[in-house]
Amino acid sequence: MSALRWMRHERGDALIYAALAVFAAVTAAGSGIPSHRNWGAIAAPGYAGGVVLALAGYFAVRHFGHAVRRPIRLGVLALVTLTAVLLPMLLLVGLRAAGETGTSVGEVPVIEASGGRLLGSGSPYADLAELAVAHSTHAYYPYLPAMALFGLPRAVVGASAVTDVRVVFLLASVVLLAVAFALRRWSQPPSIRGLQLLLLTPLLALPVATGGDDVPVLALLILGFVLAERRAVGWAGAAVGVAAAMKLTAWPVIAVLAVALVVVLGWRPAARFVGTAALVVAGFVVPYLVADPDRLVEHLFRFPFGMTELRTPAASPMLGYWIERAGPYGHQAALGLLLVAGALFVGYLVRRPPRSVPSAALLASVGLSLAFVLAPSTRFGYFVYPVVLGAWWLTARAPARPSPEEELAAELAELLRDTPVGEAERVPALAG
Q: What pLDDT, in 10s, does the model give residues 182-240?
């Protein structure tokens, strides 16, 4: 317990920033991906600066008192976010605009190309003849149609640092997260530990700088959680529906949140949430499914699940990866194990449903972690979803402050309980 107390507040912050600095330095020295090495070289000093500032904050608190603790910790968090997350992205975007290589991962040109294809032909998906001629994994677009919208600015305006899809991703995500934090009625200030995990984890900072396609999906999911907590289930369904119309990774989160809404609000609000999300997804997907189902299935399912001649580069060595390579039926075995694990998770979800909206984020985090470990085609970077959703649970696990209407209803209910039988009509507000 004494060790845990020692790690609280500024000293714990310093240890976290030191671990992040070591990770960034190791990435800079040993990663096989050039853009990742470049990110590590830029981010490591930012994290290291956080160590110095956190220790300085410790001595400032000892000198000036506990009143300055939270402002100092938040200030250090903001500075580290700028230097270790935002600055690497801006520098890599600028270097790419100047013609340098090793400044982004493959998702960046793929999504930008999908925007150009959407503008030119009306579909972000290359047809099967184009795929055969290109014979490149970069010709595949393994996302749902809404993701291509982020490639439109570059297609319309032209190539520049401003229209780099990472900039578009970040701007959209900042706006969505700002709305989410503004809408949530915080009963107590957000946890700084949760904010550190939400903003500074390399699983988020690295893709923000080098790819970033998961960031707006996560921002929409968090906005959906906030709206669901505020009982705006239609708007919540719209937010997560757009996320699900961008990437398949958002779909399990919708299911878990729907179960939580059944517990918290009842079947009708949950059905309205699911129905709205389904309508939004259908609005994006059905036109392409009707026009050319083979093309959609090729890009969205066959390629990501390893059923095409060209294998997806998503091949991090986790359990599903090794099972797939264990023998001639390894692929079927890995998919079968993934389906069994999914069925067990659904059974657990039904028997032990989340009792609040934030706890749904935590349960979704666990389910996605299981899926990513067992999937035959996966990436370590996919764990940004369970990490960020877990961070949101840690940040928002305190109950949201009730609205004025809810507070009034609670006061009236308490007054009714305390009023003797037969006297309630004397309370005008209750008699009405």
A: 998 887 888 888 888 888 988 889 999 998 899 999 999 999 999 999 999 999 999 99
Tokens, residue 355: 């009792």
CA-based R_g, the chain, Å: 24
CA distance 52 to 40: 19
pTM above 0.90, yes or no: no
In this structure, how many other beta carbons lie within 10 angstroms of the beta carbon of residue 319?
16
Nearest to 69 by CA among 189, 166, 182, 226: 189
Alpha helices in 292-403 (DSSP H): 293-297, 319-324, 330-351, 357-374, 384-396
User: How many degrees, rounded to 5, is the angle at CA 214 between CA 313 and CA 129?
Assistant: 45
Helix, strand counts (H, E) of the chain: 22, 0
The residue length of the chain stands at: 432
Residue with tokens 């449903």: 353
110 neighbors 138 (Cβ within 8 angstroms): yes
Q: Of 83, 66, 69, 55, whose CA–CA distance to 192 is shortest?
A: 69
